[in-house]
Structure to design on (503 residues):
């Protein structure tokens, strides 16, 4: 099972309250994850990638294992830790630049905080400079 | 007893305002689709509980939502808006060719006869139609392909098809307006189109009387006289008595003839309403006074309607799709502002009251008169 973390608006749209667990056929790639995600939640079609061109929407970014994989080819294999479900695949609305987002992911992982909650101001690790 | 439902689209969600026919006490539900831009919400004339909403953000793109219970619950339907064939280019602001790219739906116009048929006006300008309740969309590409499409340029808000008017007397006739291309008409259900801009004059374009290139902000029609159209252009308020074949200016004594919204009284087809805005560089009412202007003579002679509206320090805008009328015996008039107020008048504009004061910026207002 692969874990996908959706932005808050897409969780609302998909009627899910937390991270999404997906069975993905074949290799874990951006494309295979998004195919599985859209098959299970048809209402997400067009919200992450354009339905005509299949290109990632320009204000969205993808992270895995604290790395920005946004610009990796859609069929490139994702890290084994994502494929095994040990690490989630993050879909994020770009907000304030990559360094901050990467720092927030690192902070969230360190403190076992859901990134979307963190970025929504709900991080309970008050001492974090990264999330500050 | 009759009632009224006001459908409000805002920068951060949709709201549904309901009242009985007295229009004094209002229930407000929302925000629906909280945090998303709702450019437009409109109900089917033949099934008032069937609503369509255009939901979008820059992050997640376009969604279309449908309700079958008057806005109590919603379901996302189809959101694949693919231009027909190779889209080609239109002109960019600087005159260079720019690829046609779908951005959002500005306006949804349900059919007058079938609740499952609905039209969508898109940016970059195109007209789409669904005949299955919004599940699938097909472009009526004769509009972009009629010849002038490559010369269309965006207005300040983008190259948007924002007005769709269905002719109740001629089922195959339809009018659309595009900023900043102008107005167009089809007489064969969208297969072929022609520009209907003769008589418009726009000093800010190289040829002020060009066949296309005019920044039409909105058009309104009274269903009893579908050949009579009223237009708020970028500058100038205009009128056509021949289904758009020619236009005459009716700005008359307006304090400024710039503006966005225009609408027609439900029972008096010569009574029209506009909200003058100072200028294209200062999008707020002149002198900080929010005034609706009404003409009972089909234009040229206008009176300012101010009772209940702020007459000092008011610097909001009223956008093109943010005015509507109800069909009760005493015609109600409604408009929303970029300051988040929705004002209502239950007496054709003589007196105004805010239904709600502190919504997000209002993008659109539609009204349903319910039996």
């Amino acid at each position: 099972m692969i874990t996908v973390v959706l932005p808050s608006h897409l969780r609302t749209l998909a009627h899910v309250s937390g991270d999404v667990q997906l069975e993905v056929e074949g290799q874990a790639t951006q494309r295979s994850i998004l195919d599985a995600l859209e098959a299970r939640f048809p209402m997400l079609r067009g919200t992450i990638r354009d339905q005509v061109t299949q290109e990632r929407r320009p204000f969205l970014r993808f992270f895995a294992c604290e790395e920005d994989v946004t610009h990796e080819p859609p069929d490139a294999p994702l890290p084994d830790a994502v494929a095994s479900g040990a690490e989630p695949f993050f879909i994020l609305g770009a907000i304030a630049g990559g360094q901050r987002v990467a720092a927030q992911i690192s902070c969230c992982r360190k403190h076992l905080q859901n990134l979307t909650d963190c970025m929504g101001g709900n991080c309970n690790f008050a001492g974090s400079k990264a999330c500050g | 007893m009759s009632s009224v439902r006001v459908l409000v689209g805002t920068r951060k969600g949709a709201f549904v305002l309901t009242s009985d026919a007295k229009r004094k006490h209002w229930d407000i539900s929302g925000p629906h689709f909280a945090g998303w831009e709702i450019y437009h919400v409109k109900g089917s004339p033949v099934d008032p509980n069937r609503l369509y909403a255009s939901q979008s953000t820059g992050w997640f793109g376009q969604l279309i939502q449908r309700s079958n219970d008057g806005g109590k619950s919603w379901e996302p339907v189809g959101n694949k808006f693919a231009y027909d064939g190779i889209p080609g280019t239109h002109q960019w602001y600087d005159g260079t060719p720019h690829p046609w790219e779908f951005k959002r739906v500005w306006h949804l116009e349900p059919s007058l006869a079938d609740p499952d048929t609905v039209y969508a006006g898109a940016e970059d300008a195109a007209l789409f139609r669904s005949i299955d309740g919004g599940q699938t969309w097909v472009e009526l590409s004769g509009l972009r392909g009629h010849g002038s499409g490559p010369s269309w340029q965006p207005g300040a808000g983008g190259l948007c098809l924002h007005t769709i008017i269905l002719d109740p007397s001629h089922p195959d006739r339809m009018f659309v307006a595009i900023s900043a291309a102008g107005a167009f008409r089809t007489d064969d259900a969208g297969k072929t189109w022609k520009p209907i801009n003769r008589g418009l004059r726009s000093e800010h374009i190289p040829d002020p009387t060009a066949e296309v290139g005019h920044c039409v902000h909105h058009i309104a029609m009274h269903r009893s006289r579908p050949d009579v159209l009223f237009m708020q252009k970028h500058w100038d308020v205009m009128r056509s008595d021949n289904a758009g074949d020619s236009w005459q200016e009716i700005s008359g004594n307006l304090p400024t003839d710039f503006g966005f919204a225009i609408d027609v009284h439900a029972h008096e087809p010569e009574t029209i309403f506009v909200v003058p805005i100072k200028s294209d560089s200062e999008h707020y009412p002149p002198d900080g006074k929010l005034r609706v202007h009404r003409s009972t003579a089909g234009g040229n002679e206008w009176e300012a309607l101010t009772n209940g509206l702020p007459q000092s320090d008011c610097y909001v805008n009223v956008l093109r799709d943010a005015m509507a009328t109800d069909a009760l015996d005493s015609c109600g008039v409604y408009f929303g502002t970029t300051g988040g107020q929705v004002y209502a008048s239950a007496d054709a504009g003589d007196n105004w009251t805010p239904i709600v004061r502190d919504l997000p910026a209002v993008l659109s207002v539609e009204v349903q008169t319910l039996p």
Summary: Chain B has one domain: 32-314. Residues 3 and 21 of chain B are 5 Å apart (CA to CA).
